[in-house]
Amino acid sequence: MRFLLVDRIEEIQPGTSIRGFKNVAMSEDYLTWHFPEQPILPGVLILESFAQLAGWLEAKTSDFTQWVLLERVRSARYYHFCVPGDRLTLSLEQLESEDDGRRVYRGECSVDGGRRATVEFEAVVVPMAELEERERAVRTYEALQGSEGLLERMDLKKGPRA
Amino acid sequence: MRFLLFDRVLDVVPGKRIHGVKTVTLTEPYLDGHFPKAPLVPGPLLVEAMIQLLAWTAITKHDFKLSCVLSVLEDVEVPPQLRPGHRLDLHGQLMGTNKKGSVGRAWAEIEGEEVARVGRVIYGHVPHPDPDVLRERFRYYGGPA
User: Fold this and answer.
1) pLDDT digits over B10-50, tens only?
2) From CA B70, how far away is CA B72, in angstroms rounded?
3) How far apart are CA A157 and CA B126, in angstroms?
4) In angstroms, rounded to a whole number, what is the distance separating the alpha carbons of residues A51 and A121?
5) Biggest CA-to-CA distance, chain A
6) A71 touches chain B (CB under 8 A)
7) Residue B37 and residue A73: Cβ atoms within 8 Å?
8) At B133, is the secondary structure helix, strand, or coil?
């Protein structure tokens, strides 16, 4: 599987907060097993989505020189199931941290305005160079911006069909 | 990916405790992008391994008539940079269980040393229409059903 659990970054305030989407699709392979004949997005994957969003916040804030890796989950609460067809809105804020190599986050996941999960976790800062080439991370980040600006990025002035 | 995150049940005392194994190998598909230059086990999948295993302690206690869904996680620690190549011993304990839900804790060890823990997990229970299906799945995991 492509272990990319954020589909879109909608808004970002470097060093402060980020908001993105994760869509749940019937075609996602892990739903075959979670659960048989009853597809439900595994709660831990919502946690991973938030961890990845935290990574993108750190990446953008550091000009793609840093990422963060999950280390502690203070709490994760799940209020209702997320199922195929749902679009999860993930809002994450970075809290004050005394340790420069450590970040603390709080996130809320909702679908159509209804709360589905809340999380609070800590992550450690790692150099991007250890994990991924900077240019590759930049391209993935761009792909998470949606179609706006895509034609310019592809160096096309008009739409592909125009 | 197959969302089966432990490999074997070694021992279970229904309603009390469970011991199982998760091996982490470089062939696992999620390591492909996580990360291109360093294969690191995503912490949430290690959490899933622990809570999937522990859930069977409750399911066996209730005669395979119900299933567990994740409700709350608290006090969780995972190794941020765990590479493949390890065999993890997973341990779980239930502190309480009834028809509505269960509460417990779990931890993971490598060669006797704790590397991850779920300090507290709360499951909600949902009725399962076919206990034989759950029994069969437990056998698939090597559980002594």
Assistant:
1) 999 999 999 999 999 999 999 989 999 999 999 999 999 99
2) 6
3) 54
4) 8
5) 53
6) yes
7) no
8) helix
> Which residues of chain A make contact with B133, given a CB cutoff of 8 A?
36
Per the document, the length of chain A is 162
Which H/E stretch holds residue B50?
helix B43-61
Give the single-character DSSP code of A85. Answer: T
Asked if A44 is an interface residue toward chain B (Cβ–Cβ < 8 A), one would say: yes
Instruction: Look at residue A90 in the predicted model and tell me its pLDDT.
Output: 98
CA gap A106, A95 in Å, rounded: 7
pLDDT tens for chain A, 162 residues long, are 789 999 999 999 999 999 999 999 999 999 999 998 899 999 999 999 999 999 999 999 999 999 999 999 999 999 999 999 999 999 999 999 888 899 999 999 999 999 999 999 999 999 999 999 999 999 999 999 998 778 888 877 666 665
Instruction: Write down the pTM of the prediction.
Output: 0.95
Strands (E), A14-101: 17-23, 66-78, 87-95
Identify all chain A residues contacting B38, using CB atoms and an 8 Å cutoff: 130-131
Do B30 and A3 lie within an 8 Å CB cutoff?
yes
What is the enclosing helix (H) or strand (E) of A61?
Answer: helix A43-61
- Show residues of chain B in contact with A37, CB under 8 Å: none
Q: Which of B19, B34, B86, B128 is the catalytic position?
A: B34
Residue type, A133: E
- Give the span between the Cα atoms of B73 and A123, in whole angstroms: 16
Each domain of chain B, given as residue ranges in start order, spans 8-140
Domains and CATH numbers, chain A: 8-151 (3.10.129.10)
Q: Three-state DSSP class for A37?
A: coil
Cis peptide before A35 (omega within 30 of 0): yes
Q: What is the ipTM for the molecules in this complex?
A: 0.95
Q: Which CATH number is B8-140's, of 3.30.230.10, 3.10.129.10, 3.20.20.140, 1.10.10.10?
A: 3.10.129.10
